[in-house]
């Protein structure tokens, strides 16, 4: 069990160098870049991701969000985009986490678990030994058009809290976080990190007023 500290903040769906710097200036320690997805508001091209990532200084973490389920494909995608972290938004079907570790030893791996019911707890416990962090998001992988994130909806935080209590690695909480609910989310789940997209945006653009209000709640 980790001690409760002020959570680290990852601002996701970054779509320009200006947005990246706005998020960093307000206090983000990580930025998320959404590559091709079946659905969601944050997708940008890999070319744009690579261009923005090249301008981000240490120690800011850069997360590539991928929907690929094939580790060889993921490795190539990370190389093209140049991020230092990969956020795997679906279940790996071809290959395993070790493939990514061996090919890219410096890359951190974050696996997304879509919190839907109590089974999500076992899913998180099973995956935790192989990755560097787990990100608990809202979503639905069984829809015809999969929802892998960016839903703007919260999920059952009681399940997230149970995962936080049973898994030793850092937990990020995502899904519908915004200035109005972040204090309660921290109190209830006490995650290592918070990850958000739509809650600090207006018409898909980063909104400085919402960002400011969000950071004031921490
Ligand atoms: O934003 C997207 O387009 C997206 C698509 C597919 C997977 C993940 C995506 N974004 C991630 O979802 C979380 C939660 O988003 P929200 O705050 O509920 O809008 C976000 O932090 C991104 O990591």
Describe this structure in words.
It is a single chain. The chain is of the alpha/beta class. It has a single domain (8-216), classed as TIM Barrel. It has helices at 17-26, 46-53, 71-81, 97-103, 119-127, 157-166, 182-189, 208-216, and strands at residues 8-11, 30-34, 61-66, 85-88, 108-114, 133-137, 171-174, 193-196, 201-202, 205-206. The strands form 2 sheets. Strands 1-2-3-4-5-6-7-8 form an 8-stranded parallel β-barrel, surrounded by 5 helices. Helix 3 (71-81) packs parallel to helix 4 and helix 5 (119-127) runs parallel beside helix 6. The structure holds ligand LGQLAAA5. Ligand LGQLAAA5 binds at residues 12-13, 32, 34, 37, 40-43, 65, 89, 137, 148-152, 174-177, 195-199. The ligand O=C(O)c1ccccc1N[C@@H]1O[C@H](COP(=O)(O)O)[C@@H](O)[C@H]1O binds at residues 12-13, 32, 34, 37, 40-43, 65, 89, 137, 148-152, 174-177, 195-199.
């Amino acid at each position: 069990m980790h001690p409760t500290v002020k959570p680290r903040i990852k601002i996701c769906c970054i779509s320009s160098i200006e947005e990246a710097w706005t998020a960093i200036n307000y206090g983000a320690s990580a930025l998320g870049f959404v590559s091709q997805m079946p659905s969601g508001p944050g997708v940008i091209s890999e070319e744009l991701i690579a261009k923005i990532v090249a301008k981000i200084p240490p120690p800011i973490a850069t997360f590539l969000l991928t929907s690929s389920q094939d580790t060889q494909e993921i490795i190539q995608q990370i190389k093209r985009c140049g991020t230092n972290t990969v956020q795997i938004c679906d279940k790996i079907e071809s290959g395993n986490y070790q493939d990514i570790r061996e090919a890219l030893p410096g890359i951190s791996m974050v696996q997304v678990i879509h919190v839907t019911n109590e089974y999500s707890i076992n899913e998180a416990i099973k995956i935790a030994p192989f990755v560097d962090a787990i990100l608990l998001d809202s979503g639905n992988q069984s829809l015809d058009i999969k929802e892998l994130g960016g839903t703007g909806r919260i999920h059952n935080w009681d399940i997230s809290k149970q995962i936080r209590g049973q898994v030793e690695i850092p937990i990020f909480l995502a899904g519908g976080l915004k200035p109005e609910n972040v204090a309660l989310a921290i109190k209830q789940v006490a995650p290592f990190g918070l990850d958000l997209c739509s809650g600090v945006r207006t018409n898909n653009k980063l909104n400085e007023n919402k960002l400011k209000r969000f950071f004031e709640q921490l």
